[in-house]
Amino acid sequence: MVAKTVEMLTELQLNAVRTYSEMGLAQVKAASSVTDVTSLTSYASQQLTAMTKLSQYMMDDSAKLQAVAKEFKDDLEQLATENLKAATPA
Questions:
Q1: Whole-prediction pTM value?
Q2: 3-state SS of the chain?
Q3: For residue 47, which phi and psi values (nearest 5 degrees)?
Q4: Which stretches make up the Phasin domain (predicted)?
Q5: Among 73, 87, 71, CA closest to 12
Q6: pLDDT of res. 85
Q7: Cα 80 from Cα 1, distance rounded (Å)
Q8: pLDDT at residue 90 in the model
Q9: Which of these, 78, 60, 82, lies nearest to 70 by C-alpha position?
Q10: For the chain (length 90 residues), average pLDDT per consecutive 10?
């Protein structure tokens, strides 16, 4: 149970790092291509889009993390209930 939860959390974190790193690298590349006012305007527009995507990714990751935590809590509650029934004389 704990190993499964750690595995899920690790996978979630690795995916988040990959996604956020790719987004950051794309923004650095876009910033390095700014050479004039027109490209600066385009870059600024891309920044707004990137921030919107980042916000959505963070909300999705938060929901995934909450789901993992709820599953872990439910598993622990079930285990505690089973142990209590086994320890309580009939």
A1: 0.74
A2: CHHHHHHHHHHHHHHHHHHHHHHHHHHHHHHHCCCCHHHHHHHHHHHHHHHHHHHHHHHHHHHHHHHHHHHHHHHHHHHHHHHHHHHCCC
A3: -60, -40
A4: 2-83
A5: 71
A6: 87
A7: 13
A8: 63
A9: 78
A10: 89 94 94 94 93 95 95 93 84
Tokens standing for 41? Answer: 């305007």
Each domain of the chain, given as residue ranges in start order, spans 2-87
Q: Which of 13, 18, 23, 22 is nearest to 62 (CA)?
A: 13
Location of structure tokens 């993992």:
68
pLDDT tens sequence across 11-34: 999 999 999 999 999 999 999 999
CA dihedral 50→55→57→63, nearest 10 degrees, is -170
